[in-house]
Every structure is written in C-alpha cells, then in structure tokens.
Amino acid sequence: MFLWLENTPMALWVSLSYWAYPLLLSVHIIGLSVVAGIFSMRDLRCLEIVREPSLSLFLRYHRLALVGLALNTLSGLLLFSSQATVLIESIPFVTKMVCVVLASAVAFILNSRLHATGGRNARGLKWLAGLSLCLWISAIVAGRLIAYIF
Amino acid sequence: MLMTFAQSLSETSLHSWVVSQAWLWPTLEVTHFFGLTLLIGGLLVVDLRVLGFAAFSPLLATYRLLPIVLVGFGLNLTTGVLFVFGDPFRYAANIGFQAKMIIIFLASANAFYHHLRITPLLSSANLNAGAPLIAKVSAAVSLLAWTTVLLLGRLIPYVGTG
C-alpha cells in the first residue's frame, strides 16, 4: 500500500519537482508555528505561567490553530507520500504521528471544557494543558529527529 | 569581508566545541524549533488581536504574552549564534541566511518602535473602536516580517550560496 502511494502522480511530483519539497516544508513550518504556537500559549495560560489574557480568548484562537492543523495534515500527507515506505518504518516518524493525534484529541477536549465554563477558570484544565504541552514538545522533537534517526 | 569573519569564527574554541559534539547540532535544531514556536505563537496571538481578531477580549491583556515571546527570541538567538560558530562558511555564503538576518533586524526595530511608541499610545487611547491605524500597521509588519524570517530560515538548505 505504501509502495502504491509512493508511485501515485502526487508523490512523484513531490519527489521529482525541484521546488515541491522545499515549498511543502515551508508550508509545514508555517502550520507548525500556528498550531504549536497557539496551543502552547493556551497551555501556558492554563498552567497560569501567565495570568492574562483571558481563557475565553483562546476559544477564538482555537479555530485558527485548526486551520494550521489542516494545513499541516495536507502538506504532511504530501511530504509523507514521497517517502512512504521509508517513513512508515521510522521510529521518530511514527512517534510524531502518535503525539500529534493525541495532542489534537487533547486540544478538542480542552477546548470543549473551556467552552463549557465560558473560559472562566482554569481549574481541572491544568493537567490537560500540561499533557498537551508535553505532547506538542514530543511531536516537535520526534519530527526534527526524522532526519537523524532512521 | 564576510569570509574573513567566517574564517576567524572557524578558529575559535567555540567552533571546535560545536563540531565535536555529535548530539549538539540536532539538540540545537530542536531548541530552535521550540524558540520559533514561542516567538511566532505569542506574536500571532498579540498581533492578530491588534488587527481586530477576537475583539471581545481586552487588547493589552494579550501583551502579557510578550515575555514568553522574548524567551523564544532568546532561545533562538543563542542557538542561532551556535549554528553560525559551528558552520561559519556555510552561513556567510548563504543568501537565505543573509536575507534572514536583515529581516530579523527590521522586525526587531519594529518591535522596539512598537514598545516605545505604540504600547503607550494604546494604554492611553480609548480602544472601543479598535486599535489606531499605526498600531495595526506595526502588527501587520511584525507578522509579515516574522513569517518571512521563518520561510528564509527553512529555505537556507535550498537557496543559492553566493
């Protein structure tokens, strides 16, 4: 199946076009800064590392973070397709995928909790925020290490 | 001139140390990614709020995130300097890196201007109608400049060298 994916016209375009790979990496790093950036600000606020802005502000920014997540799912899928058979056996890559999926699930739970209380207090959100922060940190570490460990 | 400078960096003991530690480079890269996440993540929240996003929330409250932004900048300045010491000739000759440094300088100048002139203006102004135009221009410049920095950094391995 991964061999098939590598030979689709989409995957071949990514691996053969001179600019496709750097272009997708550029999109991917913009998406990273939006998703991990916004969610880490929300997490640091939930953990009361900073006392302001209000938690309700992050209900609005959550949607923007989801745009970043969509951008990275798309660019990530294209990047993956060009090296699918290698990446699927890469420990850092698989670790990154697990972390991103879990972190996204935590983001939705945290957001619905924030929504339920109108963002009035951070009680009960701290451990979720801590977990989210750890997962995004792990995702970035694992993602960066794909180039180093195979 | 840049090459002479690179030559002198390559003769420092810091250079020898950076290149002798096998795990240092990937550790610096990972830290550079954490730094950019804090820097751009924080500025995204602040600058978009100035531009009118999430207008229900008090504008200056988002400025409490700025110390986190500075932590991110500090991380990336430190790791960035170590990158340059570790591989001086590569960076000195790289157009992407040179352009990145110029844009960082411009973005920092804009940040100083924002801190010295615009923040006091926002503190005294009635913000019911949103931030004044000059504040919005500065916020837009900030977002545009840091995004460019991000892209130029990412493209360093791909753009021409000299």
Summarize model confidence as the mean pLDDT of chain A: 92
Q: Which structural class should the secondary elements of chain B be placed in?
A: mainly alpha
Low-confidence stretches of chain B: none
What would you report as the Rg of chain B, rounded to the nearest angstrom?
A: 18 Å
Main sheet record of chain B: none
Total discrete domains of chain B: 1
Number of helices of chain A: 7
Q: How much of the polypeptide of chain B forms β-strand, as a percent range? A: under 5%
Task: Please tell me about this protein's structure.
The complex is a heterodimer of chains A (150) and B (162). Chain A has helices spanning 2-6, 9-16, 20-46, 57-82, 84-87, 91-117, 126-145. By secondary structure, chain A is mostly helical. Chain A has one domain. The two termini of chain A are 20 Å apart. By secondary structure, chain B is an all-alpha fold. The mean pLDDT of chain B is 92.
Write the layout of secondary structure elements.
The complex is a heterodimer of chains A (150) and B (162).
Chain A: H1 2-6, H2 9-16, H3 20-46, H4 57-82, H5 84-87, H6 91-117, H7 126-145
Helix pairs in contact in A: 2-4, 3-4, 3-7, 6-7
Chain B: H1 2-10, H2 13-20, H3 24-50, H4 66-86, H5 88-92, H6 95-124, H7 133-155
Task: Provide a short characterization of the protein structure.
The complex is a heterodimer of chains A (150) and B (162). By secondary structure, chain A is mostly helical.
Task: Provide tags for this entry.
heterodimer, A: 150 residues, mainly alpha, 78% helix, B: 162 residues, 7 helices
